[in-house]
Amino acid sequence: MALGLVVASDIASAVLTYYVRGQTLSQSTQDKPLLRELKAGQKFFPAGNLQISEPIQFNYMSDNPGFFVGYSEDDVITFQQAQNILRVVYPWRETSAGLGFSWTEMKKGGVSISNNNKTSVHADREATILTELMENRMKDFNESWQRAVNMMLWSDGSQDAKAVPGMKSLLLDVPNIGSTGGISRVQYPLWQNMVNLNIGVSAENQTLSRTLRNSIRLLKQYGGKPNKAFCGSKFMEALELEIQAKGQLTMTGFRKDEATDIGMNSVSMTGLGKFELDFTLDNRGEANRCYVWDSRRIQLMPMTGEENKVLVPERPYNYMVFFRSITWTGGLVCRQENCNAIFAVNF
Question: Which helix H or strand E contains 6, and what residues bound it?
């Protein structure tokens, strides 16, 4: 349970090495649009369920021969029963992250712990403390938690069999194989997301723009309303290239003092909305991709009372070490596949 050289070095950096007072300034924090949007639209489910399950339907009685026929006089009329309800089933999973710190570490940060585990600051700590060590620890822990959850929600679940399968488990590069949520993608072709991973980019022919317009129309064919588009930097660059080539900038870019402005407003598309840059895709080697999805049909579902639960485990009696942890229980659910898409540019 010793602090070790790595932790000791980190403490030294926070307490001794920084000669300018103030909080540490993060050099690697990125926006997390997917995490933000999924949390904003999340839906809770109650405990006591073994899995997350919802009803869906592909077929209707009108698909069967003889449902709708003409008749005259005493012709025999047939009656059919509706037996078309299926259930999509997703697992819920438990995740956790923990933070440990020692009594010694707290003292070096100018914090005192009483017998009842309450904390207070030493009266004269301002004379020596240059950086708020424990506040930095908690910010680090919070940002690390969000990074881990964000990456999990972009992944397919193969990185950890006990973690929540993310977007890549719902939207597939090869959508016509296997099953999702217990529903066969082979047996039910409508249970497939759209994929186009080789879209050309042409300033003259507007290839990317035309492909996207046509694709979004098709994604709405069965009641879908795709309203989120998260893309990597290469995909965004391709969009801007086609837009700028045809002079589709707002007029503020062509007036007087602003005539030399080479900037561009955010890129959006009628019927879809704003294309949002998500650098997580760049980090994953998918800078040339864009994920388009309907936020009504893909939802994060935490278990009621089990979202970001903060736990304070008891300190081992023979170690002067304190622990904090966060747990989250839930799953990611897709109710309709054919209103979502993966696009990639050959650029």
Answer: helix 4-12
Give pTM, 2 decimals. Answer: 0.81
Span 189-227, pLDDT tens digits:
999 999 999 999 998 899 999 999 999 999 999 999 999
Number of domains forming the structure of the chain:
1
Name residue 341's beta-bridge partners: 194, 292
CA distance 220 to 182: 24
Which CATH number does the domain housing residue 304 bear? 3.90.1690
C-alpha to C-alpha distance for 279 and 33, rounded to whole angstroms: 9
Residue 213 resides in a domain: yes
Classify residue 280 by its DSSP letter.
H
The DSSP string of 176-196 is TSSEETTEETTT-TTS--EEE
DSSP 130: -
Closest C-alpha among 272, 268, 290 to residue 281: 290
N- to C-terminal Cα separation, the chain: 52
198-205 own/partner pairs: CB under 8 Å, 24+ apart? 198/344, 198/346, 199/343, 199/344, 199/345, 199/346, 200/345, 200/346, 201/238, 201/241, 201/242, 201/345, 201/346, 201/347, 202/242, 203/241, 203/242, 203/244, 203/245, 203/246, 204/245
Task: Answer whether residue 17 is part of any domain.
Answer: no
Q: Classify residue 184: in a domain, yes or no.
A: yes
Strand order in the sheet with 194-199: 194-199, 341-345, 289-293, 228-231, 273-277, 268-269
User: Residue type for 213, please?
Assistant: R
CA–CA separation, 22 and 132 (whole Å): 8
Q: What is the pLDDT of residues 233-274, one digit of tens each?
A: 999 999 999 988 765 545 555 455 555 556 677 898 999 999
Residue 64 lies in a domain: no
What domain range is 293 assigned to? 30-56+86-345
Give the whole-angstrom CA distance, residue 276 versus residue 240.
13
